[in-house]
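User: Okay, second chain of the day. Same drill as before: sequence in, structure tokens out.
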Amino acid sequence: MDKREPSASGARNGAEKSSAPNGVRIGVDIGGTFTDVVLEVGGAQHTAKVLTTHDAPDRAVIEGLARAREASGVAPGDVEIIIHGTTLATNAIIERKGAKTALITTEGFRDVIEMGSESRFDQYDLKIEKPAPLAPRRLRFGIAERLSVAGDVLVPLDEAALAKLGRKLKTLGVESAAIGFLHSYQNPAHERRAAEILGAAYPGLMISLSSEVSAEMREYERFTTACANAYVRPLIARYLDRLEAALQDNGFACPLFLMLSSGGVTRPETAKAFPVRLVESGPAGGAILAAHIAREAGLGAVLSFDMGGTTAKICLIDDGIPQPARAFEVARAYRFKPGSGLPLRIPVIEMVEIGAGGGSIARVDAMKRITVGPDSAGSEPGPACYDRGGREPTVTDADVMLGRIGADGFAGGAYTLDPKKAEAALKARIGTPLGLDAETAAWGVAEMVDENMSNAAREHGTERGKDVAGRVLIAFGGSAPVHATRIADKLGIDRILVPVAAGVGSAVGFLRAPVAYELARTAYQRLDSFAPALVNPILAAMSAEAARVVALGAPGRASTETRHAYMRYLGQGHEIPVAVPARALGPQDGAGLRAAYEAAYNAKYGRLVDGVDVEVVSWIVTISAAIGAPAAIAMPAHGTAKAVGSRLLFDPETGDSVAVAVYERDALPVGAALEGPAVIAEKQTTTVVPAHFSAHIDAAGNIVLDRKATREEKRA
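Assistant: Same drill. Structure tokens below.
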């Protein structure tokens, strides 16, 4: 971290202590439109939502921290921990705003990242497009060296060529380099030596090794992941250096943690070395929150629905555990086409993410259809109703026009919306081309975005052999509670849960996450000749390395270890995870692993393959340690719901706007119940309760929406 001295004001702030109790924790989430901050202290939550400053994201973080502290009376010196998630790494890859990156690889293999797997995600598209590699061909260099599939040296490393290349990279102005040699996951010696030589020839060059970033077989995915890590590493390192310095200048002396895509948190040192693990850090926080709520409420089957200003994220959660994955695609050329993006081999929480947020832009296409997204108005200029120069109609404009979002009190009162600007944009871009009034145009926009999200949820569930109907929908993010009931209608869901501080849900989720680190290694084994003596040293080394990373963030805290093996039938191309005992394995464990694999395979595919051996491709070790449980959020005593006013809400059944009761969420005590149609307003979002739903506040303070029985159901 930058050790420069804090400013005078920073030193003064740092010395200040308020009367706030111990246990002050802050979560910060940088999104495409808003930067969310949640401060928890003494059973209370204080939130802030500020527009993201894309030119310097740390500016919005500091502003959000100041607003949350002002609301809570907490001084910087009171804060014990800050946990931060960001979309900066993802956006840099999508927008191609990363570092000038080179790839150094085995001679003859520099085009691996361009050729890919040679599969076609759309075999009938003659003009198929894929994202260009992050390292262009002129910056990809082959070096004489070769390892066997077992990691034995076949061709020695050409050290002289590497020294010469280091000087060339400096001349070319390369900022960061990825080193990916064939079969280095079995033996990283050549990659490590190459890094030493390049570092000596070009001091200051940031170097990412594929054997450290993704130590698994499949060179295309491994090389692409290493390139992505190298591409965003300078950007993330500079950002975190600025943020740490800004926090210090403003008197914060507490530890800073970064949210990982896998659902754990880590210290900045690890995040700077492996920033590719941050690509889904914001959405991961939301999934962690939904999983936490599901466990507390005893919910078995949950659909997590996180809709913010730019995107919507949907995640399946069973028995309180989000679906894990070992691979992720970023920068898809075709929004719903798996295989059209850059594959990253990193641990992630599996979810579907689409360009459907409050800022998603609506338009009429050549076939006179309303389309929404995936592009967003973002924070600059933002939706038309923000009155910041935006002229394109967005989902937020439609929600304002329909009465779902009030013009006053938006984002905790920080912004006043202009309904006339929303109406003008909707009329000009949607209504006039289709011959609709502004309200009907707004309803069309809302209906299209809801259909897009519902389709994505159905497809996501179908691809994983799971039904989304009948699940409990947990809705959070600035826009999700506004749209939750319509999504539930389309998916056949009867119960919705809107958590406390739903508008900043991902930031709250950060505060529920453990310090955790996951490592993967390819170590091939066939179960009919299982050799634990070869596997145990690898697992022990992985455990020690992961424990070292976790200890940096949670020194002295007790940790837990879980292990998994990614296994498949001999000859198959895809693996499934199977739990492995977190201990030294013995010869008898071969039969146990096969039984566990067959149970997992049968549960997933409904059948087994007889007479075929099972092979282990990769081993996964995860170490995690809790960093302290948050204080329980204090809720108002039991009581009844009292409306604070009324608002016109568009009724799609009649096509008219009708006056409905407005309730303030902060004033609703545990046990309060109300009937739709109604609106429940809070600082960072609004929950719409249509006529066919009722709502009540449960013991944890969650808004629970239940579908009313139809006349036919009542008769039955």
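Residues 219-249 form the longest helix (31 residues).

User: Thanks, on to the next one.
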